[in-house]
Amino acid sequence: MQLQGKAMRVTIYIGESDHHQGKALYMALLQLLKQEGASGATVQRGLAGFGANSRIHTASIVDLSTDLPIRLEWVDRPELVERLLPQVQAIVDGGLITVEEVSVLQYAPGRRPDPLTQPIQDVMRRVVITVTPQTPAADIVVLLLRRGYRSLPVVDDQNRPQGIITGGDLVRRTELSARLDLHPQLSAGDLQEQLSSVGDQGLTAEKLMTMPLITLPDTASLGQAAAEMSTRELKRLPVVNDQDQLVGWISRVDILRTIHHHRPASEGEPAARPTGVSIAELMYRDVPTVSPDTELEGILVALEKNRRRRAVVIDGDRQVLGIITDGDLLRRTQKEAHPSLLARLGALFTGQPLPAPITLPDVHQSAADLMTAPAATISLDSTLTEALHLMLDLGIKRLPVVDQEGRLVGLLGRATLLRGLLPQE
Length: 425
What we know:
- The protein has 425 residues and is an alpha+beta fold.
- The chain folds into three domains: 5-104, Alpha-Beta Plaits (2-Layer Sandwich), CATH 3.30.70; 115-261, CBS-domain (Roll), CATH 3.10.580.10; 279-355 and 366-421, CBS-domain (Roll), CATH 3.10.580.10.
- The chain contains 15 helices and 19 strands.
- It has helices spanning 25-35, 78-91, 137-146, 167-173, 188-199, 205-208, 222-232, 252-261, 279-282, 296-306, 326-332, 341-350, 367-370, 384-394, 414-421, and strands spanning 5-15, 19-20, 23-24, 41-45, 48-50, 56-58, 69-76, 96-104, 151-155, 161-166, 216-217, 236-240, 246-251, 289-290, 310-314, 320-325, 378-379, 398-402, 408-413.
- The strands form seven sheets. A four-stranded antiparallel sheet has the order 4-7-1-8, with helices on one face. Strands 11-12-13 form a three-stranded mixed sheet.
- β2 (19-20) and β3 (23-24) form a beta hairpin.
- α3 runs antiparallel to α5 (188-199) and α7 (222-232) crosses α15 (414-421).
- Mean pLDDT is 81; it is low at 178-186 and 266-273.
């Protein structure tokens, strides 16, 4: 399993003599974390210390039987920490528990010469939030908007996948109009409005899910998963065991991070999986562009023209100044001045045309006001490995491609990059 970027570190201070249901408390905690799919935990035995009971515990030769301090550290994804902390607190009667945000630079097994041959079960995320066919639409909205899950598998009472629900499914099959993958920008009032909207419709997961659901066995290789995603243009796939029960989740970025981790240890070694495919072959050239003084209506027209959901801001010499995504528009526009913006963005998100054209009021916000700048770029003669490193290091999904003079010539995305990293037939 890959763990990278923002994570939470939980530190638990207890005593060696603390027990839970007849076993040492630290062992009970380790077993709980392991069975719930935690990334890993470490237990350390202290030499001396004191805690809430004010007694000093020491490991001196005179006090070998003393209750020594124990520290358990656990680092994991924020959503898993949030889910498991109540269970941890329930079995820790006394002691100290702290939680802090950390940045994970690396968490993976040793490097392999061909990472795409390893089975999915070595990399997949084992904790998957699911819903049942009877789950109300309002509960699904909370999971997608407030909790930030991108997709929700729908499972039966035997934990067998039946379908999947994404933000796009909600927008297409309910009366919601706003994009659903920008939950951090959603206020409590906006969330309540969305809940009221879907609650009045009486919908459940069974009516919202997309079927049939494509799954992969946990014994399949990462290469097979990558090929399936590239062929079907999918971002993630549920993983099942030999009883067709859901056991994990593999995403496109999980595979890219695995390839990234298994890169050569030194600059002198050849790049992993040289395929002979160039950035020029993979990039798409019909890039939506706007000038810095293009106003909001012109930006939306550029985004709607080919549904890339992002436009590159360039000057008169096609030098890249910044990039604008639909998320930037939601975050930075004066939405109260043009409420119809959400309808335009919702149609862009789902791919469904609006019943009638909607022109925004004359509100003077230009691309220079709305863009993210500076924008990271990749040169046309760079390698796919360099593009992969840049995307993952900066956490971006698409890279503007520039020529030797720095002029925009294309855009490279994660999907096409992954396809280029696969073995060529």
